[in-house]
Amino acid sequence: MELKLLLKKKKRKEAKAEVQEEVKEELMPEQRMAVHALQKQLQVLKLKEWLILFGFIGGAAALRVPMQAVPSAEPLTFFAILAGWLFGRNKGFLAGASSLYISNFFMFGGQGPWSIFQAVGFGIAGWLGGTLRKKASYLEVMIVAVTATLAFEIIMNAFTPFMIGTSIFVAFALALPFIMVHLVSNIIFALALPFAKKFIEKKGGFNEKDICINILDKYGITSKLNWLKKFRRKEKLPG
User: Fold this and answer.
1) Is 88 left (phi over 0), alpha (psi -120 to 50) or beta?
2) What is the CATH number for 129?
3) What is the pLDDT of residues 104-143, one digit of tens each?
4) pTM of the full predicted structure?
């Protein structure tokens, strides 16, 4: 039974691939050139995504060092949520976890067994940022910021008893003032998230990404350039 299902799925994939190939063959040379340009533009946008993501990681790590003068105030949640909102959950998680790990080398506490819990906490903030709608309201952004902050505090304070040998209730009671500072500061920073997202999308041209993908999908073509090699051989299209 399972073998039959697998064979059916394989046949469907092959049929879909044949249809896509037929569509590609029917494209005029000018259309193929336009598709090629769209694919190139998508690659440029993806490269921009990674460059901006690395900028977020470096910027968040650098800003966290002077901000340690204010206990519990940090910029990592802001950049992690922004990265997730712009580029998706995985990159948001990467931004949060990486910026924490890098910045810990320059913090008074440094690296330690707590680093993994901190990294997971800020990674979750980035992942939650990826759940936001493209045109999320301020309320939705605030909910994500508050949820991310509380998730981080729960993770860290649940781990604290294992380090100092106290009960979890005492750990949360002692951390309450710092939790409040963390929560309020992140809410204030989160007010700038919609503006920051809009600014980066406009300057980076990321609003073009969906347009490119939709046009390519219309022709049953992926964003990769591999299928164009065949047309280069036939039509000698310029690279």
Assistant:
1) left
2) 1.10.1760.20
3) 999 988 898 889 999 999 999 999 999 999 889 999 999 9
4) 0.76
